[in-house]
Amino acid sequence: MRPNIGTLVLTLSICLALAAPAQDAQPAKATKSIAITFNELPAAEAFGEVHPEAINFQILAALKKHGVKAAGFVVGDNLENHYDLIGQWLNDGHMIGSMTFNYEDLNEVGFAKFIEEIAWGADELETMLESFGQKKRYFRYPFLHYGIDKESKRQVKGYLESQGITVAHATVCPDDHMYNSALNKLGKILDSAQYVWARDEYFNHLFDELERAEFVSEDLEGRQVRQILMLQANRLNAIFLDELLTAIEEAGYKFIPLDAALKDNVYAQGENYYGLRGIGYLDMLAQEEEAE
Known about the structure:
The chain has 292 residues and is of the alpha/beta class. The chain contains eleven helices and seven strands.
């Protein structure tokens, strides 16, 4: 039986009524820019119960409220009966890209299998993207694992370039899956104290990561680059995205689409980082500079 969307959304958002009173602070003048992106559409896997319909409803509503054109990256094997959810993203003017079909990790499966997974994931979306008129194709590496050695990295990069697929890098990469797990342990409905605690813990972490990305940007480029925030499509972000976008605006950011962010010259430099860790694009560049 198809779940009742109204009930699921209520479960996710009832705690909004318990939030602290609105602050009087006015947004700072936008002097920086950031693209908002989401991994693991239609919804990220979690140890708790996952309701893709409710999660997408909340996320899309917050994006629309703030006039954000985001990008979402799909795990093909998780689509099942959720093609309509991806259609909602496209209808709202958001960009859709792919991950590997089974969310495979390049570090674990090797480049040959990984390239197959890229192809399967892209094929799962191709008909839909064509029908909606999206011309560009984007891919994001699961776990931001670009390869553990030069050959793996070269092979995958060469395949993506041969297919005209653009890599969707990320520069601000919070551990939101950890905060989502902590949130789920609190239960389905939060009281006011739980709501404020979960929100503030998450926001403090995320803005620490954003400030660190700003510092690395200044250190590498002598300016603020167009940042790319990587989030998971999960309950945490469904509940808090509206307030999070407000806080980012108040920090002096304007929201831009992913394709506009990737036009920043920093992304044209190319990076040659490889290794076990999944790190953001600016950190890749910084590690290369340290190695020179």
